UniProtKB/TrEMBL annotation:
InterPro entries according to UniProt: EamA_dom, EmrE-like
Record field: transmembrane: 62-80, 86-106, 115-136, 142-162, 174-195, 207-225, 237-256, 262-282
Name recorded for this polypeptide: DMT family transporter
Claim: Transmembrane helix is one of the keywords in the record: yes
UniProt-listed Pfam families: EamA (PF00892)
Signal peptide: none
EamA domain location: 3-132, 144-279
SUPFAM superfamilies noted in UniProt: Multidrug resistance efflux transporter EmrE
Originating species: Streptantibioticus silvisoli
Length: 295
């Protein structure tokens, strides 16, 4: 049962990048609606079932949850524009380097990691350099997209670390409600400051895609990952999440007709191999499956 649910979850997060790339709306607006719609679905549960816990949250817990939401908004603000600048395959591979940055941040805080983690980190960095080198020969715009996706992965690591601290004392529902609410507010402010339309002129097809993105990636994908991690464990779940990269690349190839240069594919395999080593070597502190890949 858990393996079947895991397959559905991976399929849900894999469709995220191709859906975003094909949606005719500003990147910041897509990110806003994804979080705002998720908030709308979560509100009845949070305000009825979780109201007591929300009231009991300390200022520190609320503050860290809100800060996590700001960092998550930064993640979306960097990653989503990259999907229109470089290929879905490259962007997804680079943004899912989150475990590497999480490892480095933990090391800066004095936490030592096994040699397997550092070997995986080095291998994944080689893959990143290979992808960037290939995209540089394609265009400067593609390379800039790679940089934004990589920045999105770094921001996601901050989101993971902040969330892991709050989740020690706060339930997933209460934490994500405050976090996603903050993310939606920050992204709405960014849309208004940038002059990006948050609904005017959107076609019916665009609204359908925004709803599908919210259901597939935000609600089905991440909710099911939270569900199966208890039975399958963090190592299996975190490693399976890495299948999002080839899944998104395949969907983009079939649905959007995106075929990156052939040299990109070996580089993606190198990144994936490095990430597998990082996840398997780090296990506990590195793997936070409920927040590992916020795409």
């Amino acid at each position: 049962m858990d393996l079947g649910l895991l397959a559905v979850a991976i399929s849900g997060v894999s469709v995220s990048a191709p859906l975003i790339a094909s949606t005719a709306a500003p990147a910041l607006a897509i990110a806003f609606w994804r979080n705002a719609m998720a908030m709308g679905v979560m509100s009845p549960f949070a305000l009825l079932r979780g109201r007591a816990e929300l009231r009991r949250m300390t200022r520190r817990e609320v503050g860290l949850s809100a800060l996590s939401g700001v960092v998550l908004a930064l993640h979306f603000g960097l990653w989503l524009p990259s999907l229109s600048m470089t290929s879905v395959a490259s962007s997804t591979a680079l943004v899912t380097t989150t475990p590497i940055w999480t490892t480095l941040f933990l090391r800066m805080r004095g936490q030592r990691q096994p040699w397997l983690v550092w070997a995986g980190t080095a291998l994944a960095f080689v893959g990143v350099l290979l992808v960037s080198g290939v995209d540089l020969t394609t265009s400067g715009r593609a390379l800039a997209g790679d940089a934004l996706a990589l920045g999105g992965g770094i921001a996601a690591a901050g989101y993971v670390l902040l969330g892991s601290r709050v989740r020690r004392t706060v339930s997933t529902l209460s934490y994500t409600y405050v976090c996603y609410g903050t993310t939606a507010v920050v992204l709405l402010a960014a849309c208004l400051a940038d002059g990006a339309s948050v609904g005017a002129g959107y076609s019916g097809q665009t609204w359908v895609k925004l709803a599908a993105l919210t259901v597939a990636a935000q609600l089905l994908g991440h909710s099911l990952l939270n569900r199966v991690v208890r039975g399958l464990g963090p190592s299996v779940t975190s490693t399976a999440i890495l299948l999002e990269t080839p899944g998104a690349a395949l969907i983009a190839a079939v649905w959007l007709g995106q075929h990156p240069p052939v040299a990109v594919y070996p580089a993606l395999l190198v990144i994936l191999a490095g990430l597998v080593l990082v996840v398997l070597g780090g296990r506990g502190p590195v793997a936070e499956p409920s927040q590992l890949t916020p795409v």
